[in-house]
Amino acid sequence: MPNVTFILDGQRRSFDVDLASMPYGHHGLRGSLLDVALNVGVVVEHVCGGNCACTTCHVIVKSGAEQLSELSDDEADRLDAAWEVTPQSRLACQAVVHGDVECEIPVYTRNYVEEGGGIRLGRIHT
Ligand code: FES
To answer: What is the Å distance from ligand 1's center to 93 Cα?
Structure first.
């Protein structure tokens, strides 16, 4: 069972995820970082609904990049438009989890209005 860690504002929240039984909400690819995040209650913006058509789900993979699906040409093209892209950047809606992964949700992709003015760390449940 993969362990997925999301880092928000320097705080790490980890989840053991049963990908086989996790409900699919049709936001991003099945089993993607976005799909996982939404299932565990972590806020990841996804303005285009997880269709690789925006960059609001940009995350920076801190470890476990080899445990994600390969970067597709479409994802790479879209990432070119993201702000402050790094070699570890991925689109959460396209990066499918196959093992343990840690990723950071950049502060500039956060929606502080939805998250309550930045006071709380989204809708995280452990
Ligand atoms: Fe738009 Fe991922 S949600 S590209």
So the answer is: 6
**Distance (Å, whole) CA 67 – CA 98:** 5
H helices of 1-126, in order, are 33-40, 73-79
Report CA Rg, the chain: 13
Residue 44 to residue 33: CA distance in whole angstroms: 9
Q: Say if residue 71 is exposed, middle or buried (CB neighbours under 10 Å; 0-12, 13-18, 19+).
A: middle
Q: How far is the CA of 101 from the centre of ligand 1 (A)?
A: 19
Question: Ligand 1, residues 44, 46, 77: which to mutate, most atoms within 8 A of Cβ?
Answer: 46
* Cα 25 from Cα 28, distance rounded (Å): 8
What values do phi and psi take at 69, rounded to 5? Answer: -60, 155
pLDDT tens readout for residues 33-79: 999 999 999 999 999 999 999 999 999 999 999 999 999 999 999 99
**What residues have CB less than 8 Å from 11, skipping those under 6 apart?**
121
Spacing, Cα 109 to ligand 1 middle (Å): 11
